[in-house]
Structures are given as C-alpha cells and as structure tokens.
Model the fold of this input.
Amino acid sequence: MYFFDTYAIIEMLQGNPNYRKYLNETINTSAFNAVELLYYMLKYHESAKVEEKYAELNLNIVEIEKNELFEAAKLRHAHKKKALSYSDCVGYTLAEKRGMKFLTGDNDFRGMGNTEFVK
Done:
C-alpha cells in the first residue's frame, strides 16, 4: 500500500513508464496533495477539463489527525536544510502512521526511510 505524493500522481498522469507498476494501486493521498495536483493541472488545462480529469481519478483522501499535523511540523523542522514542503511532510507522516510506503520522486526524500523513490 502506498501514499502518493503530488509528484508521483503527476508522473503517473503524464505516463512515466517508471510509474506503470502503480497504475492499479489505490491513490492514497492527502487533501493538501489534491490541492497541489489541481493547481498544477489548472496551469496547463482549462477548468472544465481539469474538473473532468480529477473526477476520473481514484483518489482516496486520507484524513489527518490533529497530532499528525504536529508530527509533520516536527519532521519539517528536523529537516529544515532540505526543501521539504508542508504537504510532503504531512504526506510522509500519514504514510508512516498508516503503514504505507511514501511514493515520491522528490530528491529531498531520497534515502529517507519508509520511502519508495521513483524518478
């Protein structure tokens, strides 16, 4: 089971062959990642097209507990020399707490535990 960060979802949508093996997985992600994805899509497509494509995605929005937000902030603080986004820190925390692998191609997560790094 995987938690997909925004990077991973975009790579799948763009047909990156390295993400082919994840096509049948449930796309577990957070509301933060979904907003990032929608913003990215709106940069390149008109709103109606984005709405249609978004509706087709099988996203499972993982709920965030109050204490997990604190854990995400601590993660970002612990790695403040890296360019970890808030949404990625929330996603990483959710993945860890839910027993999922954090799926990403973000270089700042390369080598971190509980991460499946795919470019």
